[in-house]
Known about the structure:
mainly alpha
Amino acid sequence: MSDTQDHDTLPPSLDPQPATGVLAPPSTLVGILRRLGPGLIIAGSIVGSGELIATTKTGAQAGITLLWLIIIGCVIKVFVQIELGRYTITHGETTLAALDQVPGPRLKVNWIIWFWLLMMVIGFGQLGGIVGGVGQAAAIAIPIRGDYRAAVEVPSQDEIERYVRWQDDLEGDRSELAALSAERQETILRGQQLLGERLEALEPEHGDLAERVRSGESLVDPVTWDDKVWATVAAVLTMGLLYRGRYRMIQNVSMVLVVVFTFITIGNVISLQTTDTWHISREAFLSGLMFRFPDAAEGVNPVATALAAFGIIGVGASELFAYPYWCLEKGYARFTGKRSDDASWAERARGWLRVMHYDAFCSMVVYTVATLAFFLMGVAVLYNEGLDPDGMRMVSTLSRAYVPVFGEYARWLFLIGAVAVLYSTFLVSTAGNARMWTDCCKLFGAVSPHDQRQHDLTVTAFSVGMPVVCLVIFTTGINPVRAILLAGAMQALLLPMLGVGALYFRYTRTDPRLKPSIWWDVALVVSFLGLLVAGVWGAWPDFIRPLLQLAGIVSTAAA
Length: 559
């Protein structure tokens, strides 16, 4: 038990006590459902960046082809999630304190913690992109000066260049178009028609944009202020809520925001299936379940986007780190009590682990359904119109996916929902990160592990300071989509490391009385192998291959 004591960083309010605070686990389904919560918070933190942005963008780029990868990305991580939660509940240790015990190189803390630090630093860019998304949505819905809304009405330089290239081909021998499949040809032609209509409507104010680009003119996006003002409002509101807010407030706010917009999106996808133009056929849907990949085209690599999305859809690496912290705040470890040889402790532990299983799997159903809805919406509308959400037009492009069903109401419906889920993600992620950064400070000795006042002050300081950092990052002009996908790629790289930690806990630290079934062990190993493949594959082009080239193991020509 001394090992546990050395790594205990819990404040008194969360620390399991030998007698006080223990509670018998619920034995009925209703009782279990009343004790759910951490998974709902996690669901609230992922729908904004993973589902709304990364998943929809993957559908817009790849079409239905990568449906299978999206499903695997949601389902495969839950086994690692539960294993990390199991260790925290039964040992009374935080995620970082637990993973710091995994064997391997150390420099004050171990190798996994250093990778986590790198992920968290890059994650500031992701949260900057998310708070920027809140600002974009609010700036369109409630303009102050109207500069942002006017700017995004004009297609981007990339969109117009693509339009000009295809228009030249269509007016020539159509050789490029003829080389594509019939489905892709239809998509190109529909996209050309829609963008041509937009450009024609803009001619009185902006002139012939296509000709301006054809002649070599660069269309520079203007500096806008409305989106930055609203992003500032979101950041300040988050600071205020987290300064006073606690677990129940965060759970309730995130749950309401996410559930409402997710149901709207599911309704949108179902309604799209009733239309001739936007429905996805049964044959197409089944083809998306086959293990195949789309080809890169027009300077876009949908597989790279999907692998980056893999790191943040469902539960991403950041959420896998955060989940045990929310289990602690919900009281699962405190209710279980300090680990002992008593039969009563083992019985309580089994009961609260059962509650956690329900919590994790229920949240998996929620975010899997939400992920599929956003992906299919991107396929049905954005892919078929040749649209790709990016940069300052991220939110305005995403809103077009709601137009076929909701018409003129689409903008308002989407914008309200986008503000809801993006803000929910920003709020919950900031709250979770504040707790993890505080725990990290304890591991480095900067904060006393068991001083409740220091713990609370540090959590509050991070809760107030991080929104400011994220806001500053957004105002530098960062591309929100690329920032989110970069963070996703880093999280994908960290996923197999978490799998290593989960296997280490399962086979070296699990109480024999709480040993899971052989089927669970098989699922955990398969989960780890899947995360390993996705992590290595996603990191190969930008990280692993350059290192191997530098070491002379892989030649530049072979790469």
